[in-house]
Amino acid sequence: MPALLFAAYFIAEIATLVLFGHLIGVFPTILLLIAGSAAGLILVRSQGRRVFEGFRRAARGEADPSTAVADGALVTVGAVLMFVPGLLTSLLGLVALAPFTRFLIRPVVAAFAARRLARVATAVGPFGYRNVVIDPDGEVIDATVVTEYYDDGQGEARRMIDPR
Q: Which H, E and C letters describe 89-141, residue by residue?
């Protein structure tokens, strides 16, 4: 599956370069790639500083931590995409880095993170781990391990959990 995704990405990037090469010419396409990288570098630097300031404000209690975390994730993804060569990845990186588009994408990222972290919060609970495990299928397993043995293949089983 990863190889198929990489092949699809590669074909899409080549098709985009060929399309732009035919529409605006080869030299302007190369200049567009360079300009996109330069704009991305400038945005990574400025937005990185803004994200760190958002983390500081969230740590002081002046801002919502979920906003700072979502912005940090989007700036990180945008920075990674800016270093991958190609017009499509540069465009996606610029979308993730630009503050006005990040404002539009932030609720989607926050909702995704909340849905993924709900399982962890349910498993741990407000008072710490209480012998409840929620597997990825959503099934709740409530159990207490009394004894557990480890067999090393040498014929000697030893206790894994010390009864202390």
A: HHHHHHHHHCHHHHHHHHHHHHHHHHHHHHHHHHHHCCCCCCCEEECCCCCEE
132-153 tens-digit pLDDT: 555 556 565 555 555 555 556 6
Closest CA to 124 of 116, 113, 133: 133
The strand pairing partners of 151, in sequence order, are 157
Cα pseudo-dihedral 52, 99, 111, 77, rounded to 10: -70
**Exposure of 33 in the CB half-sphere (CA atoms within 13 A):** 17
**Residue 67 to residue 110: CA distance in whole angstroms:** 8
The kind and range of the H/E element at 157 are strand 157-159
Q: Which of 135, 104, 131, 107 is nearest to 119 (CA)?
A: 135
Judge whether 74 and 102 are in contact, CB under 8 Å.
Answer: yes
Tell the burial category of 104 from Cβ atoms under 10 Å away from its Cβ (0-12, 13-18, 19+): exposed
In this structure, how many other beta carbons lie within 10 angstroms of the beta carbon of residue 98? 17
Verdict on whether the full-model pTM lies above 0.90? no
